[in-house]
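REVIEWER CHECKLIST
Item 1: Sequence provided? yes
Item 2: Single chain? yes
Item 3: Sequence as submitted:
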Amino acid sequence: MIMTDIIRKKRNGETLSKEEIEFVIDGITNSSIPDYQITALLMAIYFKGMDDDETSVLTSGMMHSGDIVNLSNIVGFKVDKHSTGGVGDKISIPLAPLVASAGVTVPMVSGRGLGHTGGTLDKLESIPGMRTDLQIDEFINQLKRIGVAIMGQTKEMNPADKKLYALRDVTATVESIPLITASIMSKKLAEGIDGLVLDVKYGNGAFIKTPDDAKILAEKMVNIGKSMNKNVTAFLTDMNQPLGEKLGNALEIEESIDILKGKGPEDVKELVLQLASEMLILGKVASTNDEALKILKNKLNSGEALKKFETMIEAQGGNTKIIENYDLLPHTAYILQIHAEQNGYISEIDTFGIGNFIVHIGGGRKTINDKIDHSVGVQLFKKIGMKVERDDIIANIHINKIENGEDLEKMFRSFIKISKNPVTPPPLIKEILK
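Item 4: Structure as written out by the authors:
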């Protein structure tokens, strides 16, 4: 087969055959197809899409491009959670140890920042010494010992997705339903899990902008899971404003620990508990949402969930002292305060803009090889619907270079709109699909 013919075919909106998709996956995996041709195909898919059969073949091909983790020797149900990505979305970090403390094994293979959204691995690597580059045997052994592990993809696991993930990030081809579906499901199904809870985000800070498109994506992923005999539940959640108050790698570790201590913002608490509850139900630890929530709150109140996180940090080489001393996490040299310029109510937040702002100050990647500054970020004190008065602090910007502070302040102000009339905040969870 000739790659240019495949690119041309998809560019013209035609359906790719199983053999053509498998040819592409093989070429990505063995590096016989150059990056510029892969990115041309990605852009063609972005504009022309893929039907359900194409998406299923792409998912299966990516899943089988490398090793599939065998967790059959681990007793009990193995359940994971995945988010389609958002600003301030640190949910996996407190959720994984919380669910594990309740008796469900949580094998989590996570990713790095993608476009304007942060990545779980980048956040965890804010912890001094923390390893996310576990090998598969290490991953399995840790799951057997403590019931939870979070790692990145190994070279042997789903290499096709690893290559595509990095290229999508830097070629503006992230927001494609078939590419998102194949990436998430191929990676998750290669983990050897029994069940999966999906957090499918929509809004101005998500890759999917509307609830209708989010529902289409959720249904596709649930159906692919069912076709492979996996129990999958999808939550549709709002990303028209950031999750929580602390946005940026090290700052989100702080907030994650706050949640495990029974503190932290209400929106993060709510989403952690609701997703964790469904994981307990899929894991057969609880039969109802009320029963699951009772178990989870007990694990938080008793300190068992926090202890499980400490055990996971220790197992992966991290400094557990950060749990009681946030000063051991990376911190910036400067904090720039953003004050309200008028009275009123927060009516709109440009979440996409804030995500890109964090990338701009060093908290994300503009190219594949960029290094991340784990210390930078934003602490957002005011959310949609909140009342503000002139000179109230809306946000703190954590930066290491103060020279362009005025420009950063002006830029950040453009992301927050204040109205004279009260505004009702959007509901966090819109719908649950099974």
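Item 5: Key structural point noted by reviewer: The two ends are 39 Å apart (CA to CA).
Item 6: Recommendation: ____
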